[in-house]
Write a structure and sequence with these properties.
CATH topology of the largest domain: TIM Barrel
Number of helices: 8
CATH architecture of the largest domain: Alpha-Beta Barrel
Strand order of the largest sheet: 1-2-3-4-5
CATH class of the largest domain: Alpha Beta
Largest sheet: 5 strands, parallel
Helix content: 40-55%
C-alpha cells in the first residue's frame, strides 16, 4: 500500500481473495490478513497517518478512496444473506467508501440488495458489476465458480444458440438491457467484468453511453 501511495494511486478495491485451487479454504500469507475488514482497517489507519510499523517517523497520511466487494446473491461462505450484510456493514463502518458488486444477471437482485443495504443505513455508493456471457460453457461455469444464478429466460436463449458467436450476441443484448435499466435508475456508474477481453464490453458501452 505504501508503494501505491508513493505512485499516486489513491483508489483501491480491497478484497480478501480466494483460496488457491490446491486448498479447501482460504489460507492467508503468514503476514497477511484473514479477512478483508482487516485490510480496510489497515488502509483507513494509513489515511490517518498510522502505519503497521509504529517505529516509522514523520509519516505522511495517505488519501485512499476505499472500495469493497458486495454480493447481491450473498458470498458463498456466508451462512445466509443477513449474516453477509452484517459483515459488509462492518467494513463500511471501518472506512469503506463504496461497494462494487459481484456480477449478476437479474437487476432485481441488485435493487433488492440495495434496499437491504439502505435498510441497514449503509449509504455509500453501490456500483453494479456486470458481465456479458460470451460462450455456452459460461452458462454452467459462472454459477459454479461465482455462486450466482442465470435467469431462466436468458438460459433458454443461450440453449437455442448453435455457436458461441450466437451466444455472444445474446449475452451482449442481455447486458445492454441490464445496463440501460441500471443507468435509468441513476446508479453511480457501471463496472464490467471483461475477463481480459474488452471488445465485447466496448460494443455494449457504445449502445449504453
Amino acid at each position: 500500500m505504501i508503494d501505491l501511495n508513493f505512485l499516486g494511486i489513491d483508489n483501491v478495491l480491497l478484497i480478501r481473495g480466494d483460496a488457491i485451487k490446491s486448498e479447501a479454504g482460504f489460507s492467508p500469507d503468514p503476514l497477511g490478513h484473514h479477512f478483508a475488514i482487516d485490510l480496510v482497517k489497515q488502509v483507513e489507519n494509513m489515511n490517518r497517518g498510522v502505519y503497521l510499523d509504529d517505529e516509522l517517523k514523520d509519516v505522511a497520511s495517505s488519501n485512499f478512496c476505499i472500495g469493497i466487494a458486495g454480493y447481491p446473491e450473498k458470498h458463498f461462505e456466508a451462512p445466509n444473506l443477513k449474516s453477509d450484510l452484517k459483515y459488509l456493514k462492518m467494513k463500511v463502518d471501518a472506512g469503506a467508501d463504496y461497494i462494487v458488486t459481484q456480477m449478476f444477471f437479474d437487476n432485481k437482485k441488485y435493487f433488492d440488495f440495495l434496499d437491504s443495504l439502505r435498510a441497514l443505513e449503509i449509504q455509500v455508493p453501490v456500483i453494479p458489476g456486470l458481465k456479458p456471457i460470451t460462450t455456452k460453457k459460461q452458462a454452467t461455469l459462472l454459477p459454479k465458480v461465482f455462486h450466482i444464478d442465470i435467469p431462466e429466460d436468458l438460459l433458454e436463449e443461450i440453449e437455442k444458440c448453435k455457436t458461441d458467436e450466437q451466444v455472444r450476441q445474446v449475452g451482449i443484448e442481455w447486458c445492454i438491457k441490464q445496463s440501460q435499466e441500471l443507468v435509468s435508475k441513476n446508479v453511480p456508474c457501471l463496472h464490467y467484468y471483461t475477463m481480459g477481453k474488452s471488445d465485447t464490453t466496448c460494443r455494449i458501452a457504445r449502445q449504453v453511453f
